[in-house]
Amino acid sequence: MPRVSKPPALAIHEAVTRRPPGAAPRDQPASVTQPVAQPVAVDTSSAFRDFPHSASHSGARTVTAALRSAVASVRDISTSDLDVVFQPIVDLSTGASFAFEALTRCKWPEFKNPMKLFEQAQEERCCGSLGRKVREVAFSRCTDAPLFVNLHPHELDEGWLVRPDDPLFFHERAVYLEITESAAFNYFSLCVDVLKEICSRSGAFLVVDDLGAGHSNLKRIIDLEPHVVKLDLALVRGIENSKRQQILVRQVVSLCRELGARVVAEGIETEDELSAVIDTGAQYGQGYLFARPAFPIPKATWPVARKAATP
């Protein structure tokens, strides 16, 4: 009988599907006695050896900073952890420094931003003790000049400011206690009760800061009887280019003058802004044009080409 050859497709199928002798059918699981793959030892030393040391150290510092931030407490901050810098407030009629504002800085990296520092102090209810430490540093560094000192509103109800041993009671020059416009609005009763008492006992002057920042209630500000009003930088920025802004600031300055308050224009950075501010009648100016905050206490510089205003 002649031999019949298989079709090519059938031959390929049998070759592919043929099982070796003793192999289990395809629809049955393989024997459980089959050898199990052994774990392979991996040498990871080279991976760490080749990893840049700078990157590993940077990562370690990041982790350390994160852990410290998670447990950092403002209550643990000492006066040696605080750094106070000063910025001149310039008499616009003479070009000379009238006083200096003390500005808080913290050496802890997690509290590099002063706003974050005081927000954390507010959460921990220790604004009073922090403010006291700030004043100890500020008054020890600036002993012979009028000084503007910022107060957090929560300091007013913690009892620290009224202590007779507070450094503000021993400064030989004038002391100006700054409270923001928003604090004057939101904590009016405290401002009246505490600040007026402190000012009467110490001879300090009350300053309303950031007037024009959006919280204005002129009646309350008038009732506080501030000695100085500081205009928010939003009223100063770009004033040379806006007639309406110049009119507004001129009217605010006129109102303050009639009420017996002097005006400081904050945030002056250019000679054009300085010229426009002088034209509004403001008595004092503050900003990078004169000096940046620093310690040792910086000397104010006056633009050479600009004459001081006529008193």
Give an account of the 3D structure:
This protein has 311 residues and is α/β, with parallel strands linked by helices. The chain has a domain of 214 residues: EAL domain (TIM Barrel). The chain contains eleven helices and eight strands. An eight-stranded mixed beta barrel has the order 1-2-3-4-5-6-7-8. Helix 8 links the parallel strand 5 and strand 6. Helix 10 packs across helix 11. It is globular, with a radius of gyration of 36 Å. About 14% of the residues have low confidence.
Please indicate the percent range of residues in DSSP E strands (runs of 2 or more): 15-25%
SSE arrangement, N to C = HHHEEHHEEHHEHEHHEHE
How are the strands ordered across the major sheet? 1-2-3-4-5-6-7-8
CATH topology of the domain at 72-285: TIM Barrel
Output the number of helix runs.
11
| Distance between the ends | 134 Å
> What's the CATH C level of the domain at 72-285?
Alpha Beta
The class by helix and strand makeup works out as alpha/beta
Low-confidence stretches: 8-17, 23-37, 39-56
Instruction: List how many beta strands DSSP finds.
Output: 8
Q: Let me know the average pLDDT.
A: 81
Furnish the topology, listing elements before pairings.
Layout: H1 8-17, H2 45-50, H3 53-71, E1 82-91, E2 97-106, H4 114-123, H5 127-141, E3 147-150, E4 175-180, H6 181-186, H7 188-202, E5 205-211, H8 218-224, E6 228-231, H9 233-236, H10 243-258, E7 262-265, H11 271-280, E8 284-285
Parallel strand pairs: 2-3, 3-4, 4-5, 5-6, 6-7, 7-8
Antiparallel strand pairs: 1-2, 1-8
Helix pairs in contact: 10-11
